[in-house]
């Protein structure tokens, strides 16, 4: 970096120092408990490099990073894309700000990053990688959740240096290392992301004794002695027993395909046309990439939640607390509209809408539970006897917390909504309360100040509650205290309930469980979600359903197993031939057989012997399709079991008896649409 570049970046950093400090302070006032964040000022090219590297400054040598950099650069050059921020999950977290962005953009990024750092620190799925000591596993003595430490930057740096050393080793062909990485990356999502990361070391690999049982069956294969001596050691062959029972392992299907290959896999020696033990560097690289897959898994599992969470709190801070000044607000609004308005399945927009709906629903439940305990109010007559305009007036926050600084002299330092120390300093002129009114409030005061149900866009949310929801709430109300009037009932509404519930959900959920629990029919109707599918009768796509269950299933399929096919290891000694058998857990979406065959060829390089894959395909009879088209109906496909096999030379696809694949069929889901076409 030149001296001029260094001076320029230091100047930008100095200009942002106050914004960084105050955003962190505001985040804590709102009840967030983020990792500390280190901010770095970078230029345009450096930002593109960081995005290509997944948010880190050092990664192992590989062509994928150059490809990602080129794509990112062209997106900005030709498609008008703009890089706002990138932040990584680490303790402390590291965030990168592009020096050319406007101050309004920088403030939006900083507030967004603080919320991301809170999600990283408090979501249990991120805690899995840090040895299971996840936040939420236990609380500290002061009641705060413990923060895990992924040490990601250090880990990725070590991996980069180790792989670079292998590539520079004169005894190792650099191209072979890169090709080996290609093989492993083809399977990087085939881990068990629901379990904590656990390393597979050399001691877990099978030794001669572990392979003894498999060798018991060599006689059944009728192999020539020459072949037997080529493939197996003398000691192993001499140790064979008389047991004729075929050996099958693992005992249960194993989802972590990479771990299985690390433990039991071999490399294929093309010259010798046989499987041989992996070289130490191959086993080491495989385990490093597997570990990185586990590190990045939580980010893939919580994309909607995480981006929605960050967008929500960014909005509260930038708009609700006017962190964007008056002359910055229009630019910030343009910034937010671009983020939320991008096409396709937008995790920012969907996540923000779901978090907002969750907050409103919980706040509404608080109000409704109180109203249902008013004398003569029942779930049956609720809409007839409740004056919702009056309800809105009664739940409106106290002007003492909403009108700061005008109410500064009227605030009571003993009020739990007021930060007494900050109030005293503000009255002495030590705090710029015009710019930072939130500093004199506590988290309780902030919750009341930003109470969602009184915002103009949500004023009708209480009155829109359905009869079925009223009945459900009434049935499960255990507090039988009664109020004489609506005013009494709403006199002490818990303004923090929505935020408290949001924080609970943030701790334990991932995208699949988040969608499953909170994507309701009310939400689908409010936001006009629907499903559509390709129809053979028309030859194009048609809207098919606005039912929440249908929308939910399609969205959940998009996020289950990172949106990738779920593949498990069924047998490492298939048909007693040392072949690998993988199974595809069929969820209604058939495999792309061309991609599946290419993947099998990669797996072969990590197994060293023939590889098989069982799956279910759907086939349509051409006559049935033509008849259905004339009748404007959909033809019924026939589910067919298929086994793909690659032996090192060719791929064969063979139809198998239904009994071999029946256990793979999830018959409650049946969609024809491709994943990228599920939702627009």
Automatic annotation (TrEMBL):
One Pfam family, short name: SpoVR_C
Domain SpoVR protein-like N-terminal: 14-364, 497-562
InterPro entries: Spore_V_R, SpoVR-like_C, SpoVR_N
Residues of the SpoVR-like C-terminal domain: 565-617
The protein's name: Stage V sporulation protein R-like protein
């Amino acid at each position: 970096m030149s001296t001029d570049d260094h001076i320029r970046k230091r100047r930008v950093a100095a200009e942002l120092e106050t914004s960084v400090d105050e955003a962190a302070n505001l985040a804590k006032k709102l009840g967030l408990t983020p990792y500390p964040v280190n901010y770095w000022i970078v230029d345009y090219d450096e930002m593109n490099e960081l995005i290509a590297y997944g948010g880190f400054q050092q990664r192992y040598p590989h062509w994928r990073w150059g490809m990602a950099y080129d794509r990112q650069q062209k997106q900005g050059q030709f498609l008008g894309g703009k890089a706002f921020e990138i932040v990584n999950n680490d303790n402390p977290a590291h965030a990168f700000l592009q020096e050319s962005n406007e101050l309004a953009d920088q403030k939006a990024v900083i507030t967004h990053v603080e919320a991301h750092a809170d999600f990283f620190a408090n979501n249990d799925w991120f805690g899995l990688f840090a040895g299971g000591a996840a936040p939420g596993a236990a609380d500290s003595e002061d009641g705060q959740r413990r923060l895990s430490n992924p040490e990601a930057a250090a880990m990725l740096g070590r991996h980069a240096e180790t792989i670079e050393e292998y590539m520079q080793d004169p005894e190792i062909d650099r191209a072979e290392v890169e090709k080996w990485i290609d093989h492993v990356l083809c399977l990087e999502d085939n881990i068990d992301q629901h379990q904590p990361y656990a390393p597979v070391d050399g001691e877990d690999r099978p030794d001669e004794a572990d392979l003894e049982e498999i060798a018991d069956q060599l006689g059944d294969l009728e192999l020539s002695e020459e072949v037997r001596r080529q493939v197996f050691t003398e000691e192993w062959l001499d140790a064979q027993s008389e047991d004729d029972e075929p050996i099958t392992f693992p005992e249960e299907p194993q989802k972590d395909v990479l771990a299985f290959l690390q433990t039991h896999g071999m490399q294929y020696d093309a010259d010798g046309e046989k499987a041989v033990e992996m070289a130490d560097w191959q086993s080491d690289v495989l385990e490093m990439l597997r570990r990185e897959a586990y590190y990045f898994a939580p980010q893939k599992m919580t994309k909607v939640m995480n981006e929605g969470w960050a967008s929500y709190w960014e909005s509260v801070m930038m708009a609700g607390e006017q962190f964007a000044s008056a002359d910055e607000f229009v630019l910030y609004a343009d910034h937010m509209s671009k983020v939320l308005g991008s096409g396709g399945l937008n995790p920012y927009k969907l996540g923000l809408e779901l978090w907002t709906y969750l907050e409103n629903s919980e706040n509404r439940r608080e109000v409704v539970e109180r109203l249902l305990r008013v004398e003569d109010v029942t779930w049956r007559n609720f809409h007839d006897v409740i004056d919702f305009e009056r309800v809105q007036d009664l739940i409106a926050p106290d002007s003492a917390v909403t009108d700061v600084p005008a109410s500064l002299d009227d605030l009571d330092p003993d009020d739990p909504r007021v930060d007494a120390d900050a109030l005293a300093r503000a009255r002495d002129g030590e705090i710029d309360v015009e710019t930072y009114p939130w500093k004199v409030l506590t988290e309780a005061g902030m919750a009341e100040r930003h109470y969602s149900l009184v915002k103009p866009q949500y004023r009708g949310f209480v009155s829109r509650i359905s009869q079925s929801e009223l009945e459900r709430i009434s049935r499960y109300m255990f507090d039988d205290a009664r109020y004489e009037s609506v005013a009494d009932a709403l006199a002490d509404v818990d303004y923090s309930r929505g935020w408290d519930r949001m924080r609970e959900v943030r701790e334990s959920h991932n995208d699949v469980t988040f969608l499953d629990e909170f994507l309701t029919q009310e939400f689908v109707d409010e936001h006009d979600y629907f499903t559509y599918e390709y129809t053979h009768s028309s030859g194009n796509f048609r809207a098919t359903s606005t039912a929440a269950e249908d929308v939910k299933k399609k969205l959940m399929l998009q996020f289950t197993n990172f949106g990738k096919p779920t593949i498990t290891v069924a047998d490492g000694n298939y048909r007693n031939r040392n072949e690998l058998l993988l199974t595809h857990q069929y969820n209604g979406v058939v495999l792309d057989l061309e991609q599946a065959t290419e993947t099998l060829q990669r797996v072969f390089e990590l197994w060293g012997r023939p590889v098989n894959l069982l799956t279910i395909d759907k086939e349509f009879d051409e006559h049935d399709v033509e008849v259905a088209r004339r009748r404007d109906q959909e033809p019924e496909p026939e589910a067919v079991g298929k086994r793909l096999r690659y032996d090192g030379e060719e791929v064969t696809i063979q139809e198998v008896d239904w009994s071999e694949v029946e256990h793979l069929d999830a018959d409650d889901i049946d969609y024809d649409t491709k994943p990228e076409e599920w939702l627009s």
